Amino acid sequence: MSFNDILVMRQEIVLLVIIVLMIIMEIAIPQNKKAGIVHLSIFLFGLHTVIGFFVIDDKSLFGGMYRTTEMIHFFKNILNIGVFIILLQSAQWVKNNLISEHRGTEYFTLLFSSLLGMYFMLSAGDFLMFYLGLELSTLPVAALAAFEVSQRKSSEAGIKLILSAALASGITLFGISLLYATSSSIYFETVSENILNNNLTILGFILFFAGLSFKISLVPFHFWTADVYEGAPIGIASYLSVISKGAAVFILMVLLFTVLKPLMQVWDKLIYVIAIATMFTGNLFALRQQNMKRFLAFSSIAQAGFILLGLLIGNQLGAATVIYFVLIYIFSNLAAFGVVQAISTQTGKESMTDYEGLYRTNPNLSLVMMLALFSLAGIPPVAGFFGKFFLFTAAASEGYYMLVFIGVVNVTISLYYYLLVVRAMFLRKNENPIPFFKNDLYMRLGLLITVAGILVLGIYSPLYEYIYELSNLIN
Amino acid sequence: MITGISIYEILTVTSILFFIGVYGFITRKNLISILISIELILNASVVNFVVINKYLYPENLEGVLFAIFIIAVAAAETALAVSIIISLYRQIGSVEVKDTETMKY
């Protein structure tokens, strides 16, 4: 293996170097100057995001355990941008809460470790690498969810997340062991050659799918979502809802479309039922939420149901629409979480009734929130509409008219509760509304990027064509 | 290989172990017991990997290698879970599930 081969893993290596640097900084920087670590880590990660855009050749390393293609590389860049926005949005929170307790560095180290795990999960060429990546991406997030040790809710979120994740990984492992039994190998290439449509394989596949469903929070396995989002720090909740979910959707899509393609007769029925259940559960439970974080949690469950529509198709069009939808979803959801983060950091208020009359005091924040909710609901001028539109057309092109109809019904339900928040902000009056406050530079930059994404991504059509070409590799 | 015992018996045992673990996870009232149930699930898959490797595909060591990694990761997972349970115990003085229900529905 030559030096050039190693450079194929450039994304991972750069991130690993950053993690090691953060640990050294923790020792090297004196306590009274620890606030600088926030700026430093944002700068380093910004650098990493920029470096990520350089082209990497398609290659597989370590006897096929690690592989990278243009599509995987592109998706890693999407994740980078998402994490960068989360860092910008949570900078103020870290400064206020963690630096004084000397725990700022750990926050960044754990967050980056989790992202590293996601890289390995996306690039996995066999089930062992996939499993290790899955664990490395889950465990640090569980530690982060329990990060506010003085708050009971945070510990509760942490224990709920770690127990659900451990059960999910156990179920996944049992499924992988059955797939290994029937297909003689754990390498994806060999598995896809040898996979047969027999009962043991189907059992293995269903267990495997159940494990991944925990990460995407599909319906029978969604119970942890709302509790963890409510208890965890908001930066971590948004990380779970966009980055973790996005990566899991991507790897599930790659596996379904390549390795498990021979089982398509099985999984298209499975996904059909789960998609309907997920959309209805997410939307109907979101109707009755008063806490903004729980509200966004159930809305993210519903969005996962919409993503399944694209998975159902199983061809290039499906892959392209799913990646495009996830990209837009990352920007819209991060904008919504960013506003919740800003208000919670400044005033500590998270309930929907506190948002009444927000437009009078903080017009800019309410406009960002409105755009984000419109994008999540899929109202035409913003990007979210195009994401949903492509998903529905793709599903209709394969003849799933009934499912598209149910999807449209669900979009209508979701419109109602998204507009509830908009009504609270713009039309309701409040005796003591949230006072006017000024966000710091990082938060404003973070919100600006998300707003730009929401407005531009839908209209800029070369992007979709580019994604469509990339998805060609999947066939 | 164990003489006189075929792969069917061992796989039956591991399947039973797996479902005991899932049942325990759902019904136990104590966080530590839930953790033990998860260990049962993980160990069922460890035995599965080793047995499948040994009986069906003895020419490669993929399954055995996988088993070693699972053991290591399971240790990390348990350590983290126990530390979070301790942090919770410091605040509410209990490790019962019914005491951790401030967030619901």
- Low-confidence segments of chain B, given as residue ranges, are none
Task: Assign an overall shape of chain B.
Answer: elongated
* Overall pLDDT metric of chain B: 89
Total strands of chain A: 2
Percentage of helical residues of chain B?
over 70%
- Give the proportion of residues in helices of chain A: over 70%
- Give the integer mean of the pLDDT values of chain A: 89
Number of domains of chain B: 1
Radius of gyration of chain A: 21 Å
Strand content of chain A: under 5%
Secondary-structure-based class of chain B equals mainly alpha
**How far apart lie the N and C ends of chain A?**
28 Å
Query: Which structural category do the helix and sheet elements of chain A fall into?
Result: mainly alpha
How would you sum up the global shape of chain A? globular
Gyration radius of chain B (Cα, Å) is: 17 Å
Characterise the protein shown here.
The complex is a heterodimer of chains A (475) and B (105). Chain A has 475 residues and is mainly alpha-helical. Chain A has one domain. In chain A, 76% of the residues lie in helices and 1% in strands. The longest helix of chain A has 32 residues. Chain A is globular, with a radius of gyration of 21 Å. In chain B, helix 2 packs antiparallel against helix 3. Chain B has one domain: Helix Hairpins (Orthogonal Bundle), CATH 1.10.287.3510. In chain B, 32% of the residues are buried. Chain B is mostly helical and 105 residues long. Chain B contains three helices and no strands. In chain B, 73% of the residues lie in helices and 0% in strands. The mean pLDDT of chain B is 89.
